[in-house]
Amino acid sequence: MGQHLDDVFASLLARRGTQGRLRRLTLPSPGSVDFSSNSYLSLSSNAVVKAAYLERLSHAWNQGEFSLGSGGSRLLDGNSPAAEALEREIAAFHGAPAGLLFNSGFEANTGLFSCAPQKGDVVLYDELIHASVHDGMKLSRARRVPFRHNCVRGDTRDAGLRSLDDTLRDLTSREQGAKYRNGTSNVFIAVEGVYSMDGDAAPLKDIVECVEERLPGGNGYIIVDEAHSTGWMGERGEGLVSHLGLENRVWARVHTFGKAMGCAGAIVLCSPTTRTYLINYARSLIYTTAMPYPMLAGIKTAYDHLQSGQVESQLTHLGHLMRHTHNLLTSLISRRQPTRQIFHISKGLPQSPIIPLFTSEARSLAQFCQERGFMVRPIVAPTVPAGSDRVRMCLHAGNTVEEVELFCKAVEGWVRRQQDTAMGSCSGPEAIVKQSRESSKL
Q: Where is each Aminotransferase class I/classII large domain found (predicted)?
């Protein structure tokens, strides 16, 4: 008999461990300050929201509407008036004609991208698009073509990937591109509202204009994953598409509820016809148990909070924290002047609550901060491109100015330690011998 399967797995895990890429489940330390989770509005721990949720469950219990599970898929016994009413309400909130609930953002993306593109179609996708979109595209019958991250126009020949405009031009200018020029085949363009690792927003208005210019026949279909822009972006947290007034120029949106909304699940916003098509062809909807009532109640409660007006002060505070954190980190770099290998951040003001702290020693920085009571995580290749390791800092409406300032002091303490270590390694006996040898060559 061949090698036991567990031995094969153990070997693969050991190899991943030697490469520093072994993933582990961890638990947050009790009492640590959260600068890691995606709960940007802190709704999952908001006392007002939790009380409203419990009141909703109690009311459903008293009315005989409460059930612990849904009992089946939406197409069998799992559908409910609550689910359909919630879909209509969410679609109206975001200015969409219709919506279809999924159990998670991953299932929404895999369901949508696996069945919407037809044979002969092509999906153009931002190189940093989420893994769930990749998995959905692999299940589809369409060709897949990446374009350079957030690059709409410009000469990118030396950058490895072309801009969106160049990619569309190449696609439609070749002899086989006639089907895209005349609209007999479709082009899907996949982007995110805000990218989860870099925290930058898509230049969506430019993307829409570029697609409409290159595909004037109307066969360019833009899909925006709003996972990290839902809840906090815009006046009411409606997301990037609504914030820019592009509801009628974007074909489909995926809004997820497990991040800023503080609960779980997702919805695809689309036309009524597309909704019916997904009900018939999206396997991640057809063959899974529908959301139970407690999950629907959580989503409903979160949206009620967005529409109540109470979120405005939270959004204002979050915006202040974003600017203040950037100023503190910029000041830190100005004072300490670390090398880019040790520490750097993006120059512009943050476009989201996600602020990547770039360093070649991401695990060391994360551990240093964790030991001082701050929950942050290192993000390294292959989750991010090689050479762009970072600690991913996420701000929340529940964080205080004092917590941000103490965290930035901890980061500065680590930078100072790294610089002192580097200075020591350059002044030891081995460095003196090396300098002597170099001098003798002059």
A: 33-410
